[in-house]
Amino acid sequence: xxxxxxxxxxxxxxxxxxxxxxxxxxxxxxxxxxxxxxxxxxxxxxxxxxxxxxxxxxxxxxxxxxxxxxxxxxxxxxxxxxxxxxxxxxxxxxxxxxxxxxxxxxxxxxxxxxxxxxxxxxxxxxxxxxxxxxxxxxxxxxxxxxxxxxxxxxxxxxxxxxxxxxxxxxxxxxxxxxxxxxxxxxxxxxxxxxxxxxxxxxxxxxxxxxxx
Length: 212
Description:
alpha+beta
């Protein structure tokens, strides 16, 4: 019988998804009695998670270079802390229910992996680099690749005329360039694994402003 385990590496999560997990685990571990000797202890986990949540909230709406760097440093510290806590829990117990009471995600059974679920949202935002837009979407745990599409014109029915925008293995660091000033761009994505592809995500759009 396969031994249940928690995922230990959360570096693949987007900033937003990592913030959701941080909040979830803070709630779950704060009053949890299953791990009396949790290591690192909750008293060490809590400030690291809270620090990331505060700095991620600042940069979610923009943020300058210093604030973004501070968020990235807080993110790295939290991912390391999560790895240490989940490794302890995996070594501490084989009971899936006890592991899951921590709020962390379980390692999926190979038999349970199917066609990936679709991304629930997408977002286009401005980049600090000229002639570029950034493409955001949530990570899908069962996906190993994402297929992106971009449109900058609409058909006679007002629907985007989609063009392929490449594939990526990560939901982070995606961009599209070059873009033209005053043009509205549309973006969608779908997840892929060996069992198939998801439905297309919701469409996001943004009117590009190219800085001189």
